[in-house]
Amino acid sequence: MSASRPAANNPNVQSYCQLFYISDSQQAQIERLQALIVQHQLPIVLNTEQLSVKLTQKRRQQLSQTFTLPILVLDQKDKLSWLSDGLSVAPEWDKLQRRVVSAGRKSELLLQAAKVTADSRVIDATAGFGHDSLILASTGAQLTMLEQQPLMALLLLVEQQRMSAQPNWQKLMSRLQIINTDALSYFATLQADITNETKAVDVVYLDPMFPEDSYQDSKTGKGAKVGKHMQALHQLASPPTLDEERQMLQHAQAIVRQNSDKQGRVVVKRPQLAPALANQPPNESWHNEAVRFDGYF
Ligand SMILES: C[S@@+](CC[C@H](N)C(=O)[O-])C[C@H]1O[C@@H](n2cnc3c(N)ncnc32)[C@H](O)[C@@H]1O
Fold it and tell me: What is the pLDDT of residues 244-259, one digit of tens each?
């Protein structure tokens, strides 16, 4: 294969993806996928190929080793996954159903930190697999989800489309707006448009990448196991530099300050023992054994 993995944090490069599907009956689904790529102007070119053999774990490993370009798989249930180093990863929002239904400030540290209410407008500037966005949106808030990697944005858009077909998810899905963009350019556009009242933002949420080897168990101080979603993301995106961290935080703070009605806040997710983003001390922190949410207001 000639194309290589997309350069980390370089989303402007047109990326080729290999899409494997199982049966001819999935053509309509593939067309919907292509339509999403066009509609959202994702710089993705799909090479499609029907799989002739069953997708066992061994086959997944083989495919991951053979192809240098990212692999997407449309399985028997029409679920789209990204095959990263033999691991199938997908947003799998349905698996969060119980958490989303019972989410509240008692059960979710993120909601304690973000103080989101049903009339809040929230920007999740680093959407990833969208799990934290779902928790934030469970409150009734409107979520703008920014994701710089086109492949991740595609997975999110496909998941939103898939879940919108389920009646009990429709309302929540309609509150999510997914945009494939770099957060800093999006912030710059918002800041240039201070007169537009509809753009008042209550919360900006940041969960940037963190060096893979620095997740620590707070009790033992040793390296903690990273979940498969995060392992996969490390293939695609790199942690920000200190300068990028500073810019991210400064712009996010400027965006929430533009909200003249309410006191907005920026919330940053960090591994529990990690230094603060851009080394800037927060006003308040909430933590458990694994993660910490730093609030700036
Ligand atoms: C740690 S993950 C976020 C995980 C997410 N909170 C979740 O619940 O799944 C960070 C994500 O942010 C994206 N990202 C990092 N910097 C970004 C930026 N400047 N603009 C937009 N997306 C960014 C990365 O591509 C990656 O998908």
Answer: 999 999 999 999 998 7
